[in-house]
Design brief:
By secondary structure, this protein is mainly beta. It contains 2 helices and 9 strands; from the N terminus they run βββαββββββα. The longest helix has 9 residues, at 118-126. The model has no long low-confidence stretch (mean pLDDT 91).
Length: 134
């Protein structure tokens, strides 16, 4: 377990006592964040999600924030280093490192297939509306 001091726009939010913290975009919200109790967010939402991983305190819940916020994280724990994972890349950082996360000043264009919508994919994968009693 580690402690993650979390700041939003230089205002202290909280210290998460947890196994880690997921910072997710709407595109990433239905993966790892969802499996840790985070919400599903529509792809067009201009937001980010902070989802603690196995938090020590029961009051630590996922938080949806504006993508305009600058997130700063500072990790401490029993060891002098911690791991950071970003899109399957892993790096070791010293605990005195401040991690800053903010939206890039540009957007990327995503390819969306016309055969299936985001909502249709959610219904299929999460079995929304399925009643196996009938």
């Amino acid at each position: 377990m580690i402690s993650i001091e979390t700041w939003l726009n230089d205002e202290f939010l909280t210290s998460y006592w947890a196994d880690g913290l997921i910072v997710s975009t709407p595109t990433g919200s239905t993966g790892y964040s969802l499996s840790c109790g985070g919400p599903v967010i529509m792809p067009e939402a201009d937001s980010l999600v902070l989802t603690p991983i196995a938090p020590h305190n029961l009051n630590a819940r996922p938080l949806v924030i504006s993508s305009k916020r600058v997130i700063k994280l500072k990790v401490s724990g029993r060891e002098n280093v911690h791991l950071v994972s970003l899109d399957s890349r892993i790096n070791t950082l010293n605990n005195n490192t401040t991690i800053t996360i903010q939206k890039a000043p540009y957007n990327i264009h995503m390819l969306e297939l016309e055969e299936e919508s985001f909502l249709e994919t959610l219904r299929k994968k999460l079995l929304w509306g399925a009643d196996h009693r009938n």
